[in-house]
Amino acid sequence: MKQDILESYNRIFPYIHKTPVITSKTIDKMAGANLYFKCENFQKMGAFKMRGATNAILQLTAEQKQKGIVTHSSGNFAQALALAAKNLGVKAYIVMPSNAPEVKKSAVRGYGGEITECEPTLEARETTATKIQQEKGATFIHPFNDFNVILGNASAGKELLEKHTDLDLIIAPVGGGGLISGTALSAIAFGNNCKVIGAEPFAVDDAYRSMESGKIEQNTATDTIADGLKTSLGDITFNLINNHVEKIIRVSEEEIVSAMRLIWERMKIIVEPSSAVALAAVLNSKAEFTNKKVGVILSGGNVDLKKLPFK
Q1: 98 has catalytic annotation
Q2: Are strands 34-39 and 21-22 parallel, antiparallel or unpaired?
Q3: CB 302: neighbour CB atoms within 10 A?
Q4: Are 260 and 271 in contact (CB under 8 A)?
Q5: Going by C-beta distance under 8 Å and a sequence separation of 6 or more, which residues neighbour residue 306?
Q6: Taking phi first (over 0 means left), then psi (-120 to 50 degrees means alpha), and beta for anything else, what does residue 153 get?
Q7: 181 in active site
Q8: pTM above the 0.70 mark?
Q9: Collapsing DSSP states into helix, strand and coil, what is residue 71?
């Protein structure tokens, strides 16, 4: 696995940013721990997903690249795949739900992605993507339930652990599970008994319930400010989480907003609500992290400035 991650990293390195790791004494004091924030909000297109998208495209054959790629995504992976495809000279067909944030649709178009809108249901997204596959001969790349995507995402944890080799824990937000799965693989490959914990909103706590039940659970509602975490797990990500993630900590909407505001005000950086979920979990479960060295992955910074949760 270590070799797979290293090969993926070397493959994508020319196309991504090696993002900084920053600290805050103020937040350390509040948490009672030493926190090391891996700032994927500074990644190209503003989120970690650039890593996985780039790796997945680079693994395609020349014929597949010529026919293009297709995915379905409400936001960050749509942007990542569109930009990665543009960088690599590949046509990208992006299926987006009609209620996806306009700022994310605009970014996809700016990166040269061809958007097809659909009803905001998973069934509609999958049906529309399949139709494009059949019509264009494009290769489908899943936003998270794809091992090449996960290996690309693992590079963020690799960079973090190479900079701070003695981390006790890494915490990352959980949506479809592509980030935390890659993080867990990196913790095994590059960490020194480093454990991985997930963070998730109560409102969409399918990963927490999946770990409890031992099977993939779905979300019946998606009423959370953390729009990047509404997706349910796939079979690949579920198995990796079930085997390699210690636990999932759930947080309230109020805790997410409070953590997001804290990062903006004290660290002077822009993160989206999904990113703030990881810090919210540290602050709401301090006993879990007391006196430990903790990596916190800030997954992205794509925010609609017209819809900020604080004034």
Answers
A1: no
A2: antiparallel
A3: 24
A4: yes
A5: none
A6: alpha
A7: no
A8: yes
A9: strand
Q: DSSP state, 192?
A: S
- pLDDT reported for residue 92: 97
Quick one: tokens of 276? 């703030």
φ, ψ of residue 39 in degrees (nearest 5): -90, 75
Q: Please write the tens of the pLDDT for every residue from 84-100.
A: 999 999 999 999 988 88
What the block records as the tokens of 212 is 């409890």
Strand partners, 159: none
Average pLDDT rounded to a whole number, residues 268-291: 97
Set 38, 44, 49, 104: catalytic member? 49
Domain boundary among 140, 163, 193: 140
- Select which of 8, 24, 74, 258 is catalytic: 74
DSSP 8-state symbol, 168:
S
Which of 122, 140, 158 is the C-terminal boundary of a domain? Answer: 140
- Amino acid sitting at position 117: E
Q: What is the CATH number of the domain that holds 73?
A: 3.40.50.1100
- Count, in order, helices (H) and strands (E) of the chain: 14, 10
Report the pLDDT value the prediction gives residue 220, as an integer from 0 to 100.
80
116 and 37 both lie in a single domain: no
- Average pLDDT of the residues of the chain: 95
Position 308 in a domain: no
Q: At what angle do helices 206-213 and 235-244 cross, to 10 degrees?
A: 70
The amino acid occupying position 166 is D
Same domain, 157 and 236: yes
Give the pLDDT of residue 133. 94
Q: Using one digit for the tens of pLDDT, what is the confidence trace for 128-176?
A: 999 999 999 999 999 999 999 999 999 999 999 999 999 999 999 999 9
Asked if pLDDT for residue 184 goes beyond 80, the answer is yes
Q: Is residue 114 part of a domain?
A: yes
- What are phi and psi for residue 294, nearest 5 degrees? -125, 125
Residues 228 and 276 in one domain: yes
Phi and psi at residue 92, to the nearest 5°: -120, 125
Q: Is the dihedral of CA 197, 1, 11, 108 positive or negative?
A: negative
